[in-house]
Design a protein that fits this description.
The complex is a heterodimer. By secondary structure, chain A is an alpha+beta fold. Chain A is built from 26 helices and 28 strands. Chain A has a 7-stranded mixed β-sheet with strand order 8-10-7-11-9-12-13. A 7-stranded mixed β-sheet of chain A has the order 23-25-22-26-24-27-28, with helices on both faces. In chain A, strands 1-2-3-6-4-5 form a 6-stranded mixed β-sheet. The longest helix of chain A has 21 residues. The chains are: A alpha+beta, B alpha/beta.
Chain lengths: 742, 233
């Protein structure tokens, strides 16, 4: 073995540990750490693993509710969905790797979140992705998008978990920091959830799955730093093998159907280090591992490399006494390795031996739970007020609104994402009842009469202009999407993507966004059951917009049928639920038509949001809702066009400005609004329900014909064949990506 | 009557096929593990979709040497029903049980969407429930579904009426514009020499229930079951 480098403050700094953090490690050990120990401290105390900058704020999030089966702190959260079943879900970022090596970065992002879900004993049933890229006029961004999509497809399609939905936004702020957030949902029996605990002193600690290689060493540390110029970080990206993960998934679920294990955890970021530490820490025990027994892919791997490797498709489990052979047999059936590498101990220490020598001996609690926590300085940046001060009323109003609608439908953020989701197997498992392209994706829960509605949302432009309001609106939009599909929102997972926490304005954005999520979740009754924080999404001092992506799970209860957004039958009434405000600030219209990302973003009244959601669900209960769509980017006009495109049917709708500008009425992004349709015979039921619910509404027109015609103050203002709008919407993204080929 | 659904490492439509056979068609169905060396007395075999062995080497190339495949080949030679869907079709082709080859899609990308097919022949256990020329909608989900064969093989398939399904337009138009993956003669599925074997890239199990938006795939399984019941009577 090569001689190990000498450990000191300088080497610690090179590992991303500050002088104070290094001092703390020395104090905990009472001596200078060994090289392996330094590696262990550096990954456990990285921002990625320790949440050291975010933790004090995250306590603000509501995590409780009668539906919560498992809140934050485990590998994934879980909510009750009836019949003794629960939905297990979490969203995680894989941003940094997906810029460095987009295909493998995205693929292993999928692999990692899948393991977080099946390690709980849940079978993964759906994946969604929240993606951000710079504008597609830059070839590099086209490359990043194409490769990220191919990587997600590669992993998800092979393992056979449908990718049922997601969101993609384009903005040049993501040029050097694209975002890849993956949201995974599984279904488990509540009574048979598994946890990441190293329980039972003397129990065998077993390593299962793929062998350990030198890939991904320091991945967690890399994800905790901003990018500089021309740095070669590719070796820190792991390489995924979805086939091995499929075997691991089936083997783990087969194992969990029996009574063989005490606890199990996937080896994600910081691999063997974090899995062993966290399992011991949760159980209040210690773990002793003999690293000579770790199955390695390469010869001559050092303890340091083994502990820091982020090789994929591996799990650590604690077997019940006498069940080692049973574990080995199940894994052998699936052609996988299972090796006993250590024991649970009662000394509260992570002790590692190699070649008969102790190479690490660290108290677990100090390492895992007493990681540094920072109350980083917070300061509201002055530029926020300047951005908000812009008054859209000063802009000229377009004379003809038709080209505006067409431009919005062609904007990559709004355009059809079929080019992307048709590369994902979104139907495998035969549960996808509402396919991608509607509001929420809806999957059935086999063996029940229920469905899960899933959505992931965040408008980061709103978050730039008002991080509190923007984050709250992300929760509200996710809830609206789920409601539009006929589901009651149950809970969320969040993936908080921000720039460097070492800059006070970023910490201000973060703290404000957490407040916004907290207030919205309280108002809408959707606790946060899991989540992830990704800081340092910045390059050379240029940070991303705050992007707190919200993954929402809703339940379509017994007897209700999921609803889709497309218009259904000629003569159906088009109904607008909710009220129109003068909300052009921060809109897609301002960005696309006037090239401005400014103004005060829409105002969100959380009490109204809840009231409108409840009213729409009450309407769904009457069975009269034939289609339902929420309004979001592009406002009412784009929402109407999307309903028409999805249903391949026209409509005639009449609106009045009531003193507002026409562009604000058509393209403003006021919150808490739905466009829905009912058969004319159900008008009484509709009006009675909405009046009783005390929400504003307008019966605005009819479905029919092959044109979308919208009159404003009795003047025909939008008038286009649906087929033309559909063509624009369908071909915009392929055109942007490949110069015209659909 | 029992139908066996083979599980290779990496199969991922195995549960879907079992679900349709059991819950939708009310049939008796069971999994057959790829390491088994007998077919446990089943009356028909389905090779489901997925990524057997991760599609390493070539789709189906490794699965064809799984222990159970020798038995599946013998079973097919005896004239018993064997169906391969998607990756199952690729395995049957690699095993030489069906002619031709499935290569990368024309556009080099994975495609998942519902397409229109014409049922080219109702003369088989799988297609007896359809009218000849019937237009049906099945989902596809594959990266390697581009069916190719040499000119003689294609001619023989056409002459013997062994093209089972063909990609077509919404009204059944025989137009190359509706060919999603570049397959020769727009072939989506073929029968074996004695029509007891079939392979197809589209997924009938994904469109066998109304809740999934269509039931066009259901007669595929019901026909197979009806044939088995009649043969036993």
């Amino acid at each position: 073995m090569r001689p190990e480098p000498e450990v000191g403050p300088e080497l610690a700094q090179a590992h991303g540990l500050s002088p104070e953090e290094y001092e703390k490690a020395v104090k905990i050990l009472g001596r200078v750490p060994s090289y392996t120990e330094l590696g262990v401290f550096s990954v456990m105390w990285s921002e990625h693993c320790s949440y050291k900058s975010s933790r004090i704020h995250l306590g603000r999030l509501p995590t409780e509710g009668p539906q919560v089966v498992q809140g934050p702190g485990e590998n994934a959260g879980a909510v009750d969905i009836g019949d003794g079943l629960c939905a297990v879900f979490k969203m995680e970022s894989h941003n940094h790797p997906s810029f460095i090596e987009p295909f493998q970065g995205a693929a292993t992002g999928v692999g990692g979140i899948l393991r977080d879900v099946f390690t709980m004993g849940a079978r993964p049933v759906a994946l969604l992705d929240s993606l951000r890229f710079g504008g597609l006029e830059h070839p590099k961004n086209r490359y990043l998008l194409t490769q990220v999509v191919a990587g997600i497809a590669h992993y998800g399609n092979c393992i056979g978990v449908p990718t049922v939905g997601g969101e993609v936004y384009f903005n040049d702020i993501y040029n050097k920091n694209n975002l890849v957030n993956v949201f995974c949902v599984g279904v488990a029996q509540t009574a048979r959830l598994f946890k990441g605990v190293a329980k039972g002193v003397g129990n065998p600690v077993m390593y299962v799955g793929a062998r350990t290689g030198r890939d991904g060493i320091h991945g967690a540390t890399m994800a905790s730093e901003e990018f500089g110029e021309d740095e070669e970080k590719r070796p820190t990206v792991q390489v995924g093998d979805p086939f091995t993960e499929k075997l691991l998934l089936e083997a783990c679920l087969e194992l969990m159907a029996g009574d063989h294990i005490e606890g199990i955890q996937d080896m994600g970021a910081a691999g063997l280090t974090s899995s062993s530490c966290e399992m011991a820490s949760r159980a209040g025990t210690g773990v002793h591992m003999d690293l000579d027994l770790v199955p390695c892919r390469e010869d001559g791997m050092t303890p340091y490399e083994m502990m820091l490797s982020e090789s994929q498709e591996r799990m650590l489990l604690v077997a019940k006494p006498g069940h080692e052979e049973a574990v080995r047999e199940i894994f052998a059936k699936w052609d996988l390795e299972a090796a006993t590498v250590g024991r649970v101990t009662d000394d509260g220490r992570l002790r590692l031996t190699f070649g008969g020598e102790t190479v690490a001996d660290i108290p677990v609690r100090e390492l895992a739970d007493e990681a540094p926590r920072y109350d980083r300085p917070i300061a509201a940046p002055e530029w926020v007020e300047a951005l908000q001060a812009f008054d859209p009323e000063t802009l000229p109003e377009p004379a003809d609104m038709n080209p505006v609608l067409e431009a919005l439908l062609a904007a990559p953020t709004i355009a059809s994402k079929a080019w992307i989701y048709e590369q994902y197997d979104h139907m495998v498992r035969t549960d996808t009842v509402v396919l991608p392209g509607s509001d929420a994706a809806v999957i059935r829960v086999k063996g029940t009469d229920r469905y899960l509605a899933l959505s992931v949302d965040c408008n980061s432009r709103y978050c730039l202009l008002n991080p509190y309001g923007g984050a709250a609106m992300a929760v509200a939009e996710a809830a609206r999407n789920v409601v539009a599909s006929g589901a009651r929102p149950l809970g969320i997972t969040d993936c908080l993507n921000f720039a460097s926490p070492e800059r006070p304005e970023v910490m201000w954005q973060f703290a404000m966004a957490v407040e916004g999520i907290a207030d919205a979740c309280e108002a809408l009754g959707t606790p946060v059951v899991s989540g992830n924080v990704s800081f340092y999404n910045e390059t050379l001092g240029m940070g991303i917009y705050p992007t707190p992506a919200i993954g929402m799970v809703g339940l379509v209860e017994d007897g209700r049928r999921p609803v889709t957004c497309g218009f259904k039958d000629d003569g159906d009434l088009v109904v607008l639920v909710g009220s129109d405000g003068d909300d052009l600030g921060g809109s897609e219209y301002l960005a696309v038509w006037h090239a401005r990302e400014q103004g005060v973003p829409p105002h969100l009244d959380l009490a109204l949001a809840r009231k409108v959601n409840d009213a729409v669900l009450r309407l769904m209960d009457t069975g009269c809702v034939k289609s339902c769509h929420d309004t979001s980017e592009g406002g009412l006009a784009v929402a109407l066009a999307e309903c028409a495109i999805a249903g391949a049917k026209g409509a005639q709708v009449g609106l009045s400005t009531g003193g507002m500008r026409r562009d604000a009425l058509l393209f403003g992004e006021s919150q808490s609004r739905f466009v829905l349709t009912v058969a004319p015979a159900n008008r009484d039921v509709l009006e009675a329900t909405l009046v009783e619910s005390q929400v504003p509404y307008l019966v605005a027109g009819w479905v029919g014909g092959d044109r979308l015609q919208v009159g404003v103050d009795r003047k025909l203002t939008l008038d286009r064949p649906v087929a033309d709008l559909s063509e624009i919407h369908r071909t915009a993204l392929p055109k942007a990506l490949e110069g015209g080929a659909a | 009557m029992t139908i066996g659904v083979v599980v290779f490492p990496g199969s991922n439509c195995d549960h879907d096929v079992l679900h349709v056979l059991r819950e939708v068609c009310g049939a008796d169905a069971r999994f057959l593990w790829h390491k088994e060396r007998d077919l446990a007395g089943v009356d028909a075999v389905v090779l489901p979709g997925g990524f057997s062995y991760g599609d390493y080497l070539r789709p189906g190339a490794m699965a064809r040497i799984s222990p159970i495949m020798a038995e599946v080949a013998r079973f097919a030679r005896e004239g018993r029903p064997v169906a391969g869907i998607c990756n199952g079709f690729q395995v049957l082709v690699e095993a030489g049980i069906l002619p031709g080859a499935l290569v990368r899609n024309r556009d080099q990308r994975f495609i998942c969407r519902t397409v229109t097919l014409t049922v080219e022949s109702a003369d088989s256990p799988y297609t007896r429930g359809y009218a000849p020329g019937q237009v049906v909608r099945f989902p596809i989900a594959h990266a390697d579904g581009n069916y190719q064969a040499d000119a003689d093989t294609l001619k023989r398939l056409e002459d013997e009426g062994r093209v089972a399904f063909r990609y077509a337009g919404p009204e059944g138009e025989a137009d190359e514009a509706y060919n999603p993956n570049g397959s020769a003669h727009r072939i989506a599925g073929v029968f074996g020499e004695h029509r007891n074997t079939v392979g197809l890239m589209p997924h009938p199990e994904r469109c066998a229930e109304e809740v999934l938006g269509g039931e066009d795939g259901r007669p595929f399984f019901e026909g197979l079951l009806a044939g088995l019941t009649e043969a036993a009577a």
